[in-house]
Amino acid sequence: MGDSAAAASLASLGTWDVPAGVASQLSRIMRPDDANVAGNVHGGTILKMIEEAGAIISTRHCNSQNGERCVAALARVERTDFLSPMCIGEVAHVSAGITYTSKHSVEVQVNVMSENILTGTKKLTNKATLWYVPLSLKNVDKVLEVPPVVYSRQEQEEEGRKRYEAQKLERMETKWRNGDIVQPVLNPEPNTVSYSQSSLIHLVGPSDCTLHGFVHGGVTMKLMDEVAGIVAARHCKTNIVTASVDAINFHDKIRKGCVITISGRMTFTSNKSMEIEVLVDADPVVDNSQKRYRAASAFFTYVSLSQEGKPLPVPQLVPETEDEKKRFEEGKGRYLQMKAKRQGQAEPQP
Fold first, then answer.
1. Distance between CA atoms of 153 and 155, rounded to whole angstroms?
2. Which of 35, 70, 66 is nearest to 55 (CA)?
3. Residue 242, SS3?
4. Which residues touch 63 (CB under 8 Å, ≥6 apart)?
5. What is the pLDDT of residue 14?
6. I need a labelling partner for 201 at 20 to 30 A (CA). Which of 229, 256, 305, 339 fits?
7. Which pLDDT does position 349 carry in this prediction?
8. Given 225, 239, 249, 281, which residue is catalytic?
9. d(CA 97, CA 58)
10. Residue 125's pLDDT is what?
11. Is 47 exposed, middle or buried (0-12, 13-18, 19+ CB in 10 A)?
């Protein structure tokens, strides 16, 4: 679907004020291989579609003026909530709009709606904000300038600038605390961090990459969600679904031929939710000049569901080491902060 349909879709939800001419939409039906055994579509599948829509519109915009050709690379995904499960047979409509541009980055905001094509019922399932940077096709280490957009309201640019400065600060803070690695433990006890922690090792191939050889952000996010889902399922041994994803930061590009290790560990449990930290490390095995490095990191939140789709109590995590206890308290702080924010939004306005 085209720009006008996407802009109308975004505007109809009253979510974002999108400048004219910088919106687009893509749609596809959900298949059995997109979902878990209970028929719920994987959060990673939705994240991959969100990133594809963002990459298309930001790359298109960054090449809208004469100059050096480029491709938009994903730098960060803000927190996104999975508002409603999507099921096999439903159609996902992903609407993307550019809402702010800085000198070297593009903010893209996305809505995902599910449609039951038998009944015509539609519902909002996701809202997400992504940040892209344009990389030169001649030199992927060179960041190009972004063409400006024309804002429909005077306040729009100032509001976008505030969001830009906030995410820039958070990215810097996250990078400083990203030295951890997940180590295996022999014969761990149930409900401990070690019991459910999981890792996936993946060789980056051509199908994972852009035309000039680095991994699509959506591919990385899909693998991260897969590992987080394994951790959650091991911990509670029930059907689990993605409830939300905290900010995903992409610290460095992952090139074709790298071996990536995606590691996940439980950090916090409330009565009905689980927070899982996911770390992505890249090992350039064919390049001896570069060492293993941290490529991406995020926190995923999962909930446990019964066969009828009702939330179930979650077994409480048993942190053992001082580091695990510290991460548990940090996770509890994030949980309480988000809970207070949701309650504040739910209160009726005077």
1. 5
2. 70
3. strand
4. 69, 70
5. 46
6. 305
7. 52
8. 225
9. 9
10. 96
11. buried
The whole-number mean pLDDT for each consecutive block of 10 residues of the chain, a chain of 350 residues, reads: 50 52 84 92 96 95 92 94 93 96 96 96 96 92 93 90 92 65 81 96 94 91 97 95 94 93 97 96 84 94 90 96 96 93 68
Q: Find where tokens 């899909």 sit.
A: 222
Residue 225 catalytic? yes
Instruction: Please give the model's pTM, rounded to 2 decimal places.
Output: 0.89
- Residues 58, 107: Cα–Cα separation, whole Å: 8
Q: Among all chains, which residue has been given the structure tokens 């889902």?
A: 229
What confidence score (pLDDT) does residue 13 get? 45
For the chain, first and last CA: distance in Å?
40
Q: Is 119 exposed, middle or buried (0-12, 13-18, 19+ CB in 10 A)?
A: exposed
Question: Which residue type does 36 have?
Answer: N
Structure tokens at 181: 């690695």
Which one of the listed residues 17, 36, 191, 283 is annotated catalytic? 36
DSSP state of 193: H
Alpha-carbon separation of residue 164 from 7, 11, 283, 337 (angstroms) = 22, 22, 30, 21
pLDDT of residue 1: 43
B/e letters for 61-78, b = 16+ CB within 10 Å, e = fewer, are bbbeeeeeebbbbbbbbb
- Cβ-contact 214, 256 below 8 angstroms: yes
Identify the pLDDT of residue 287: 75
Question: Encoding tokens for residue 36?
Answer: 């878990």
Angle between helices 43-62 and 217-236 (to 10 degrees): 160
The span from the CA of 217 to the CA of 72, in Å, is: 10
Catalytic residue status for 36: yes
